[in-house]
Backbone:
């Protein structure tokens, strides 16, 4: 796949045309207030995994609507004092998987909280969290569930779950709430950007080839799924373009980035058809904190940097979490 998007010098100056709703902050304040009306009820059940270097807990907490959301908490074995915590959100179609696949951050000395994504977890890694909320007719997938109204849109529930996941991670006695990072790849990167805009006291954010950014461009510059789900919906539901665009504006990573208060390390891949680099740079260029950087992978598609990006995060994140 050759490069299809803007040249790198133009990407570094690119700004999204996404229009921020006037009641964006009020919408999210009300959403989180409703979410917090339900007790968090975070429960951590020890799990015998056969691993000797980490202690693992099967987590359940109350997300949007008080619905139970699952997760894993992986902590270096023998930890007795609070340590920084890395809260991770997973990519589209995946779930929390199995705990032995989440050893990187505990190996670096941090607690690692992995949130399951409601309704997902059958595309590549297994999940355990149902989404009990239905929706009007939608394209197969998650991008158009309830998309005609911000109040019913699927990602309103997911982003609320994510904020509550940070609260659950911070509630454990062996995590240091003042040293919390939000990370994720693709959909997980988009969720981490939402958390960056909704949680004001994070220590760091690391969105890796983030999804859910710059919807006006993403839905027109690529025909690859998952963004294409939106185009398929509008191809059938003619005349609803403005209505759907209005909903998506409440969930655009560009607007969350503009509210971020933590240092950030992004990544973008210049041949990425799933999350086009211009959409990633739209969020990066809007990101409000001065301490921000972006790793660029010139000849990669949506796999991005993979282990190379993890290595970059391992160099970058400790300085933000151990200071």
Residues:
């Amino acid at each position: 796949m050759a490069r299809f998007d803007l040249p790198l010098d133009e990407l570094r100056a690119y700004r999204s045309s996404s229009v921020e709703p006037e009641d964006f902050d009020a919408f999210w304040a009300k959403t989180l207030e409703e979410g917090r009306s339900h007790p968090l009820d975070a429960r951590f059940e020890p799990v015998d995994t056969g691993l000797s270097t980490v202690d693992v807990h099967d987590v359940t907490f109350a997300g949007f609507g008080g619905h139970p959301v699952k997760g894993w908490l992986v902590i270096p074995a023998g930890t007795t004092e609070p340590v920084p915590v890395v809260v991770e959100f997973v990519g589209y179609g995946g779930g929390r998987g199995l705990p032995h696949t989440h050893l990187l951050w505990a190996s670096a000395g941090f607690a690692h909280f992995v949130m399951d994504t409601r309704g997902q977890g059958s595309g590549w890694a297994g999940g355990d969290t149902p989404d009990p909320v239905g929706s009007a007719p939608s394209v197969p997938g998650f991008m158009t569930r309830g998309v005609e109204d911000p109040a019913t849109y699927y990602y309103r529930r997911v982003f609320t779950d994510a904020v509550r996941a940070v609260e659950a991670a911070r509630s454990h006695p062996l995590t240091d709430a003042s040293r919390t990072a939000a990370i994720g790849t693709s959909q997980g990167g988009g969720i981490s950007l939402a958390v960056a805009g909704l949680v004001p006291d994070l220590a760091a954010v690391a969105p890796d080839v983030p999804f859910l950014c710059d919807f006006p461009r993403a839905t027109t510059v690529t025909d690859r799924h998952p963004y294409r789900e939106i185009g398929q919906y509008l191809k059938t539901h003619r005349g609803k373009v403005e209505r759907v665009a209005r909903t998506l504006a409440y969930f655009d990573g560009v607007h969350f980035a503009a509210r971020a208060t933590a240092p950030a390390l992004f990544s973008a891949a210049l041949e990425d058809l799933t999350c086009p680099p211009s959409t990633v740079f739209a969020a990066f260029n809007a990101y409000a904190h001065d301490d921000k950087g972006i790793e660029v992978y010139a000849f990669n598609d949506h796999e991005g940097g993979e282990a190379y990006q993890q290595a970059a995060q391992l160099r970058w994140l400790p300085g933000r979490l151990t200071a």
